[in-house]
Amino acid sequence: MGHLQEGLTGSIEFIVDDEHTAKEIGSGTLEVLATPVMISMLEKAAWTTVQPYLAEGYGTVGSLMNVTHESPTPIGMKVECIAKLVAIDERKLIFEVDAYDEKGHIGGGTHERYIVNNDRFQTKADAKKSNSR
Prior knowledge:
The protein is α+β, with helices and mostly antiparallel strands. Helix content is 25%, strand content 41%. It is globular. It has a single domain (9-130), classed as Thiol Ester Dehydrase, Chain A. The protein has helices spanning 22-25, 35-50, 118-130, and strands spanning 9-15, 58-69, 78-89, 92-101, 104-117. Strands 1-3-4-5-2 form a 5-stranded antiparallel sheet. The protein starts with 8 loop residues before the first strand and ends with a helix.
């Protein structure tokens, strides 16, 4: 296992399918890559970049996403989502994220994640069910 450090970069690729469209997920009416799907894939690129560098039982959770979605991508086109770790502030990780389709840049911005103990975080979330008002 390596050392978590600024400059780590990772990416994921996927082909836009019906399940990724604004029409299918309800964020719009068109058969193009939905913004929430692009955001989800940018998050995946970020967490998968740092996960191998975290201690056993730890992961990251998203806390802020500030991105633009500048260009539509049709069904059948490949998309690459790239995340670069640009700052580490104790448990807070800040990433630059960018998405590209086969014709160029389609969106990007910044994303923050926090390192958490997975069991403790899940327990805290689950406690909301028994403490609901």
